[in-house]
Amino acid sequence: MKNSTQIKDREKRSFPGFICLAFLVVGSLYSATSMAQGDLLIYPKRILFEGSKRSQEINLANSGKDTARFILSVVQIRMKEDGAFEQIAEPDPGQNFADKYFRIFPRSVVLAPNEAQTVKIQLSNTGELQPGEYRSHLYIRAEAEKRPLGERESLNDSNTISVKLVAVFGISIPVIIRSGENNAAVSLSDASFRQAKDTLPTVKFTFNRTGNMSVYGDVAVDYISPEGKTIRVGSAKGLAVYTPTLKRNFNLELIQAPGVDFHKGTLHLTYSYDAAKNEKLAEERIVLR
Predict the structure, then answer these.
(1) Residue pLDDT, tens place only, 68-82
(2) Which among 144, 142, 125 is positioned nearest to 61, based on CA atoms?
């Protein structure tokens, strides 16, 4: 069964991005109540401006044993159909960058062990906004350790050239500004089940986004036995389809719970803004054989 439900404007919800810089940039999604990379904790995982809201705060905390400096900057990101992130310089058709319409302060934070500080994100120049969604990503990274001037690593062989690559890790979170009416909707399609020998069972399906803004929510997969008993066999939180991407393919591994026979019954897939409140955005069913 396919279902497409109109998405209403909501308050803050999180779906993170993670970036690792070691001369190359790679991106992937990360989901948790707060985000963590190395010794840095961040909350919330997403900043959403809509309605009359003009400023918001991000809490940064150093969970490490050493004092560290964290640098804040802005990057632009494209979401591909497999859910991966790719850093870009120019917006794709239908994509709007948000960085011209917000300010960040401070842009550099020094935190002692177990110390926390808030960073403010404030809107500006919003009179220039046209209806639609604007998105950029706030990138927070630890500053690489610097050696004092004149200090060098000793080399056993003076004729040897030494090259040291230092990976700098950080976290990116989306900053989204919405202007005008939200007419986004989402449906699920192409759902299939697979269980190969010696592997976990897997469901594969596609998010289909329409409208002028991004969608985000949590996925749940329930097994329904022929007798009507329901057992939760899979879940994933904070899944998004960013504008202008129209489709996102997703694979989810399921658990082999007691009482589940994947050769009969039904799998019920739901995509919800808030599952506890039954705020369902889309659903799909797979008949098992």
Answers:
(1) 999 999 999 999 999
(2) 142
Residue 169 and residue 40: Cα distance in Å, rounded? 10
What are residue 27's phi and psi, to 5 degrees? -135, 150
Q: Measured between alpha carbons, how far is 49 from 130 in angstroms, rounded to an integer? A: 14
- Among candidate residues 182, 206, 186, the one with its CA nearest the CA of residue 4: 186
What pTM did the predictor assign?
A: 0.79
Mean pLDDT of the chain: 83
Superfamily of domain 11-146+168-179 in CATH is Immunoglobulins (2.60.40.10)
The residue ranges of every structural domain in the chain are 11-146+168-179, 185-287
Place of tokens 């560290």: 68
Q: Which two tokens stand for residue 131?
A: 């209806």
What are the CA-CA distances from residue 37 to residues 41, 54, 172 (Å)? Answer: 7, 28, 10
The H-or-E segment that residue 36 falls in is strand 35-37
Cis omega before residue 244 (within 30°)?
yes
Yes or no: domain 185-287 corresponds to CATH 2.70.70.10: no
